Amino acid sequence: MSVLKLDLWSSEFYFNVGTHSIRRTTFFGLFLTISAIASVLFYFLYLIHLYFSNLIDPQFRQQNFITDEKKEVPLTNDLIGFQFYYNLSTTLDQYQASQNKTYLVYIAQFYYQDTNNNIYNTIYLNTVKCSDPQLKGFICIDFTQASNYTYLLDASNSNYVYSSIQINIYGCNDLDTVKTTIPNNCAAQSDVEKLINQADAYFYLKLKTQQFNTTSKMIETKYRTIYNYVQSNQYVLNTLYTQKQDTVVYSGLWYQKQEKFSSPIQYNQITQHFDRNIGLANGLGPYSQSELLMDEIVKQFQIEYPTIIKLLTLVHAVAGLAMLTRLLGRFYSQSVTKQDFLSLFLQNIYNQKYENINLHNDQLNQKTDCPVQIPIINQSFQNKMSVFYTQNQTIDNWFKNNPIDNVEDDCMTHQKINNSFNFQINSQKPQIKEQKERQQVNIEYK
Ligand SMILES: *[C@@H]1O[C@H](CO)[C@@H](O)[C@H](O)[C@H]1NC(C)=O
Ligand SMILES: *[C@@H]1O[C@H](CO)[C@@H](O)[C@H](O)[C@H]1NC(C)=O
Ligand SMILES: *[C@@H]1O[C@H](CO)[C@@H](O)[C@H](O)[C@H]1NC(C)=O
Ligand SMILES: *[C@@H]1O[C@H](CO)[C@@H](O)[C@H](O)[C@H]1NC(C)=O
Ligand SMILES: *[C@@H]1O[C@H](CO)[C@@H](O)[C@H](O)[C@H]1NC(C)=O
Ligand SMILES: *[C@@H]1O[C@H](CO)[C@@H](O)[C@H](O)[C@H]1NC(C)=O
Ligand SMILES: *[C@@H]1O[C@H](CO)[C@@H](O)[C@H](O)[C@H]1NC(C)=O
User: Fold this and answer.
1) Closest ligand by atom to 383 CA
2) Prediction pTM value
3) Per residue in 30-66, pLDDT tens?
4) 377: CA distance to ligand 5 center in Å?
5) Is 55 within the bounds of a domain?
6) CB 226 within 8 A of CB 288
7) Would residue 37 count as lying in a domain?
8) Does any domain span residue 15?
């Protein structure tokens, strides 16, 4: 095999053989072509199926940004849910109802600050039973009194505008700058402290988070849960920094449409403990205060579903593999072309010398009554040719066994003229030998 055969960029030459096409086509090649096209088509349909079943993972990019830009979240009643648990199974509300006494009081506040414009607003908010099924049994904040505000942080324009949400838990009898009234059916302070100091008593917060579910292609709402334990002599300050996510989703097979989602996704918690009595004396002494502040960090997500172009790129890769069958087909086609050449060569050469020769590839392969195989020709087309005749004898052997100059049998007529032999091959049955067309091959023998 020559190294030159590795040259993939060699020019091709075409020859009018077999069919009327300028290419040598073969059934094997047709089979390969059909299987290559079928497998590529199948793969394409398979990808389309995966695409519409949403089983192709989208491209996902995530970055955390600290920006000065305005970050805001609308104030909705389902933003926060909370509940104080008397023990693991009983809520404060249930316990208070059973005792017909008030032990603890929740006070929710909204604070808004705009330093440059000298605005410092505190709004007291009502608490209501949550309506969201995920917050069943919890208490929510009714933001209608702060409806023209948002939960925000804006450090742009060398200003510092922010808002915060506070949930305070006070003992029923406490009084300070925030809690200025005492309900009329308070439990005794010692009972309140007993309740607060219960081993199982805890404060339970549920904070809204939203994220894009790439499988269902929908924004999904879940709640982050945060527990806090309290003690009667402590003022627990629980600061929760809300991180917001900005998600951009590109989807669509042909045209990529863009969707944007923005909502809280994460809460970072910092807890500080103070002496409650000192706090009360200084004007702020709840048992627990949970403060929600907007974080500077924004999580940015970019989700890109594949387009038809991306799918076609995948198909193209598979088509590249299918091209291997092309090599196979080519190789086969070339070997067939070589055979064509051979028979053509014989036809032309011997046609010139003897007009009645009609050797054709089909005839050579045809099974006649005469088991003549002509010719197995030395590839280099030297003067010498080996002809197998009857019992697989080479021409040398055959003449050794038949040392006559002129031989005739049922299948072949042979004449020796000097160093040259003339063969006449009978393609018809011996019985009708008289009418047969005679074919002659002249083989020079040395
Ligand atoms: C919680 O307290 C209630 C009322 O005192 C009681 O009925 C219930 O069994 C307690 N549950 C647990 C788990 O201790
Ligand atoms: C609950 O207490 C209030 C006053 O403290 C009283 O008027 C009311 O009747 C009580 N209800 C029950 C069911 O004990
Ligand atoms: C909201 O409305 C109140 C009065 O209704 C007003 O004082 C306050 O400035 C408004 N806040 C914003 C952010 O527009
Ligand atoms: C996304 O949605 C699918 C289908 O609704 C659900 O099976 C899957 O659990 C969701 N994934 C997450 C992380 O919630
Ligand atoms: C072709 O002929 C040459 C010389 O006649 C010989 O050496 C060579 O082996 C032959 N090749 C084949 C494949 O018969
Ligand atoms: C002729 O040669 C072929 C292959 O070389 C072999 O399969 C076959 O049996 C031979 N025929 C005879 C009659 O020897
Ligand atoms: C055979 O060879 C002889 C002498 O070499 C020559 O005279 C004769 O013409 C040749 N016959 C043929 C048919 O070429």
Assistant:
1) 5
2) 0.64
3) 888 888 889 899 999 999 999 888 888 899 999 998 9
4) 9
5) no
6) no
7) no
8) no
